[in-house]
Amino acid sequence: MRIGLRLLALLLTAAALLGEARAAEIAIIIDDVGYDRPLGLQAAELPGPVTLAFLPDTPYAASLARRAYRAGKQIMLHLPMQSLEPHPLGPGGLTLHMTRSEIRATLLADLASLPHVAGINNHMGSLLTQNAGDMAWLMQDIRQIGGLFFIDSLTTPQSAALEEARRAGIPSAARDIFLDDVREPAYIDRQLDKAIAIARARGSAIAIGHPYAATLEVLRRRLPQLAAEGVHLVTAGQLIRGRQAHLMRAGTGLAADAHAAGIKARP
């Protein structure tokens, strides 16, 4: 009976640890930066620690990345990947027919084209991200480079990118909401509200938008209000680190309670 009560106490503690109240965090990523300088400048000047994802070898990517970094923004490589639709990839893209060495060489060249890169997410990729073998190659290369995180833009529900990133031990997460599939302020406001609701319910959320005039207008208006709404704007990297720290605390707490209750872990 005593062991049963201890086990019950452990389970209750586990639930508390996993669901403990913490400040809701949201990361806003602006994809596709690099082609349009005026809109890119507006993105770089958004209030707060927004994350900007730059397409490689685009006309203004390097200069905008340097400016955005000085303005306190986090910089990501928006890595083009082959889509199910015949959309042009642009420079620096990964395709299904590439060999492992070609994938690595392209990744290294893309990273070399941008300063201050902290992480990577995929541009398009509804075809390539479904291929677990190619994703495993890519994630192994990212791990060997070191110091980078990965965010699956989740352009297909069949994506294997996040699973392979985690398998490779890369700090990683997946997109929760696209903000601007419809380029209208009212729609973007509703999508941002959904992202905030996810952050409150789960502790954090990742929202992806683009350097569209409507998106930038909404974010200029809404981002300064987030703190008053009980939501903390963070970079994508900070959000991932926060999730990892939360899981580690929960795991440590569970191990300590199991030891105190005299419950042995399985070998």
UniProtKB/TrEMBL annotation:
Keywords: Signal. GO terms for biological process: carbohydrate metabolic process. Residues 1-23 form the signal peptide. The keyword Signal applies. It holds the Pfam family Polysacc_deac_2. This is Divergent polysaccharide deacetylase. It comes from Acidihalobacter prosperus. The lineage of its organism: Bacteria, Pseudomonadati, Pseudomonadota, Gammaproteobacteria, Chromatiales.
